[in-house]
Amino acid sequence: MVAQRKLMTQRVVPVLLSIVVLLVVWEGAIALFKIPPFVLPSLHSIVRHAYGDTGRLSVALLATLGEALGGYALGNLLGLLLAVLLLLAPPLERLVMPLAVAVNAVPTVAYAPLFLIWFGLGASSKVALVALAVGFTMLVNALHGLKQADLSAVNLMRSFGAGPLKIVWRLRLPVAMPSVVTALRIGVPRSMIVAIVGEMLGAYAGLGRMIYESTQQVDLLSVWAAVLVASVASMVFYGVLVWVDQKLVWWR
Question: Which of 61, 76, 87, 246 is a good FRET partner for 39, with 20 to 30 A between their CA atoms?
Answer without folding.
Answer: 61
